[in-house]
Amino acid sequence: MKKILIVEDNDINLRLIRTILKARGYLFVEARDGEEAQKIVVAERPDIILMDIQIPKVDGLEVTRRIRAMDDFKDRPIIAITAHAMEGDRKKILEAGCDGYIVKPINTRTFIDEIEAIIKQKTEG
Fold first, then answer.
1. Which single residue of 36, 67, 70, 96 could bond 61 by disulfide (Cβ 3.0 to 4.6 Å)?
2. Is the pTM of this model over 0.85?
């Protein structure tokens, strides 16, 4: 069973993601800001990271860069979850080290499929 780290500071989004993952039987841990996310990555060693970009203390792009700098997490799937979906935003997200991104508002019907498609593309690419 894959363990997912959800990095999200918005209560509504966090509840929604939590509900979707529970319904599909995923294990997960949560972080509400960038500093907490870094600590949880080291302590919990999640298999997949869902990273909100606009989070307190350290933004999601910088947290992603820091995680990618850790030897054990260079290849760990990191998927941005963001309301920023312009072409320039996409480039910044991918350059920071995210493997892909899911646009908010989250579509509850396709959310898991989007995650799995990004992971599949990463492993096959």
1. 96
2. yes
Q: Note down the domain range covering 41.
A: 3-124
- pLDDT tens per residue across span 78-112: 999 998 777 789 899 999 999 999 999 999 999 99
Find, among 47, 50, 54, the residue nearest to 30 by Cα. Answer: 50
Are 49 and 76 within 8 A, CB to CB?
yes
According to DSSP, the β-strands at 3-7 and 27-31 are parallel
Q: Enumerate residues 6+ apart whose C-beta is below 8 A from 6.
A: 14, 17, 18, 21, 28, 29, 30, 31, 50
CATH number assigned to the domain comprising residue 96: 3.40.50.2300
Quick one: tokens of 5?
């780290």
